[in-house]
Design brief:
- There is one protein chain.
- The chain is of the alpha+beta class and about 260 residues long.
- About 40% of the residues lie in helices and about 20% in strands.
- It contains 9 helices and 9 strands.
- The strands form 2 sheets. Strands 6-5-4-9-8-7 form a 6-stranded antiparallel sheet, with helices on both faces. Strands 1-3-2 form a 3-stranded antiparallel sheet.
- It starts with about 35 loop residues before the first helix and ends in a 14-residue tail after the last helix.
- InterPro entries: GAF-like_dom_sf, HTH_MetabolicPath_Reg, Tscrpt_reg_IclR_C, Tscrpt_reg_IclR_N, WH-like_DNA-bd_sf, WH_DNA-bd_sf.
- One of its GO terms (molecular function) is DNA-binding transcription factor activity.
- Keywords: DNA-binding, Plasmid, Transcription, Transcription regulation.
Length: about 260
């Protein structure tokens, strides 16, 4: 089980009404438009997070903010290098990349898991993810693999509905969700999907840590179905999760709450 698989692999499923243009907006227009500066800024940055680039008019439409407010905020963000302006388009700037990299480096869980994740990738040749639960969403903290195999929808920081993603279902089971599948995950410490999102490919996820604890993390491997179905790979993934947990337990600074399901 070695070598990368040459695909632009896509370890996700689109929700109803979505396409693959990258213009995926999670904006609820029914909610009250925020009035505070920080809230408006966060709304604009969230819109830019979910698209390669947007025009001023598109940002106004997506956020529901006034054109004047969006323009004024964007000008300030451009000056701070949080947003980059290219003609009529806006995208996240270099400062956001710097801040994101710093946040990733400071995450204790990620630091504890990274050596093991890299080794699992080398052994399996598959894309390897590390994720945590935030509310009812799974959030990727790390994605390791061939760059052609890690598209924008599995990037670091990407959020997926926990109930409909392999890694998310492993996390929900770890939080004590009452369902037949969750009970199986607690017994086997494994979520396994074959060709659910893409023909010929599969995904397996393993909880990290003591099941039914308030601490929750999970790793997943994504690759060709034949490889993902190999018992040796599944065993390697489970061993990797156990190794990461031992490393976390040996370092008190990493044993703080890693993920929380909020009702």
């Amino acid at each position: 089980m070695s070598g990368n698989f040459p695909v632009s692999a896509l370890p996700w499923c689109y929700e109803d009404g979505e396409d693959d243009t990258g213009d995926r907006m999670h904006i609820d227009h029914a909610r009250t438009v925020p009035k505070g500066t920080i809230q408006r800024t966060a709304l604009i940055l969230s819109a830019l997070e979910n698209a390669d680039r947007l025009t001023l008019s598109r940002i106004v439409a997506v956020t529901g903010l006034s054109r004047t407010s969006v323009h004024r905020t964007l000008e300030q963000l451009v000056e701070l290098r949080w947003v980059h302006r290219d003609g009529m388009n806006y995208r996240l700037g270099l400062r956001m990349i710097e801040l994101g990299a710093a946040a990733a480096q400071q995450n204790m869980l990620r630091r504890a898991a990274l050596p093991t994740l890299h080794r699992l990738h080398r052994i399996s040749g598959c894309v390897v993810h590390l994720g945590v639960l935030d509310g009812d969403e799974a959030v990727y903290l790390e994605a390791i693999g061939d760059e052609r195999s890690i598209a924008s929808n599995s990037r670091v920081g990407k959020r997926l509905p926990a109930a409909s993603s392999t890694i998310g279902r492993a996390l929900l089971a770890a939080h004590g969700i009452d369902s037949p599948e969750a009970e199986r995950v607690r017994q086997t410490r494994l979520v396994y999907d074959q060709e659910q999102c893409m023909k010929g490919f599969g995904c397996a996820a393993v909880p990290i840590g003591r099941v039914e604890s308030s601490q929750a993390a999970a790793l997943s491997v994504f690759g060709p179905s034949a490889r993902i179905g190999d018992r040796r790979l599944l065993s390697s993934a489970q061993s990797a999760a156990a190794e990461i947990w031992r490393r976390i337990q040996s370092s008190p600074s990493t044993t703080r709450k890693m993920g929380t399901r909020q009702n």
